[in-house]
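ingest -> validate -> predict -> emit
validate: passed (alphabet ok, no gaps, 290 aa)
predict: started
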Amino acid sequence: MANNPTDFYHERGQFTPTAVGTSIGLSWITSAKLQPQAPLRLFCFPYAGGAASVFSKVLNGLPSEIEVCPVELPGRGSRLSEPPVNDLESLVEIIAEELAPHLDQPFAFFGHSMGALLGFELARYLRRARRVEPVHLLVSAGRAPQVRASGPVTWDLQDDQLVDKMRRLNGTPQAVLDNPELMALVLPIIRADLVAIDSYVYRHEPPLSCPITALGGLQDSSVTRDELCPWREQTSESFTLRMLPGDHFFLHSAQQTLREVVARELRQYCSTRPTPRDVIADRQAIGSSI
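emit:
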């Protein structure tokens, strides 16, 4: 058995290194309804194995002042022919470069499960590399990054074990789980994402200066309230924890409630349209509120 995630991928012939900073494709942002005049852009990052298309339904119906910008990761959806990136740090750097032209106005991040970790690390990378941060970070069904998962790693599960785990998490349609041809397409993508998650190493940095809202499922046994609460340590601004009805994939079962929460959390940014640098300057002038 392989000793680390990268070795595992080499053994299976599924590891394709990707140069950091290279443009893997053109379709990074997908949106069925472009709203370029909206005062706020909401970039959305999916769960492991998920495609950007999930957000076209989940967040459909948000106020027109919010332009929903789902991010399509390599290896899925409209970019199925591209190899997935199985290193979180590399993926963050690539996304930062690709999204740079779209960060010319206030923006927020929403990520579910793996997407929560991706949004968090992207926010920290943008602060270091470009001196800009999102105005708000929404993390959904993702434990705080400094909290280690209590269970065993998942990247080296056998196919039947991985399918069983997917079945228990209740985020994949039964018709897909029962279709060998579809699963042959899905499993390599999920494995790449699990490698990225399981090989992630948290590094301490000062807290972000944007508010953080953590969302959890009341019936989610894989990410508990106690694992969500430490997100408050990652911001010097306000922190809010909201528990919604449902399991790990409450974003499907509680869509209306989720949309209402997201709209309420982002409402304050929709009345004006300062630049991201103006937002940071204002915060530095008036000080941070805890």
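The two ends are 47 Å apart (CA to CA).
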